[in-house]
Write a structure and sequence with these properties.
mainly alpha; 2 strands; globular; Sufe protein. Chain: A
Length: 142
């Protein structure tokens, strides 16, 4: 599934819910279904700066694709991490860097998150793109 197809799927899932309490519940459910991050990856280097809660993001590069894992100590933020991982994980660095994340705005997250959570979301996306950039540079130098 492409990044755009995954975003479209998320938009459809969220558009079926009219009430924002239901959408928050869906985010929490997504967070609860996220696989726990291995303790050895919960390091200071993997903490996302700019997040109100603690968020860890770990990336590996396997067969030309970036694999993301993450976790947060806040259940709602864990849902946001889960969404980003589902969109970006298992894609090439170029696919990640060339994509435009539009699902965040389309499902109304921008206006329904606190400013600190919005800043944290931007920081997570930025870090994921930085990982993709680093892996792309590595593959070009190989």
């Amino acid at each position: 599934m492409t990044i755009d197809e995954k975003q479209q799927e998320i938009i459809e899932d969220f558009s079926s819910l009219d009430d924002w309490m239901d959408r928050y519940a869906m985010l929490i459910e997504l967070g609860n279904s996220l696989m726990p991050l291995a303790e050895e990856h919960k390091t200071p280097q993997n903490i996302i700066e700019g997040c109100q809660s603690r968020v860890w993001l770990h990336a590996t590069y396997n067969d030309g694709k970036v694999i993301f894992e993450g976790e947060s100590d806040a259940v709602l933020v864990k849902g946001l991490v889960s969404l980003l991982i589902s969109v970006y994980s298992n894609h090439t660095p170029s696919e990640i860097l060339d994509s435009e994340l539009y699902f965040i705005e389309k499902i109304g997250l921008k206006e329904h998150l606190s400013p600190t959570r919005s800043n944290g979301l931007v920081a997570m996306v930025k870090q994921m793109r930085l990982y993709a950039l680093a892996f792309k540079a590595k593959e070009q130098n190989a």
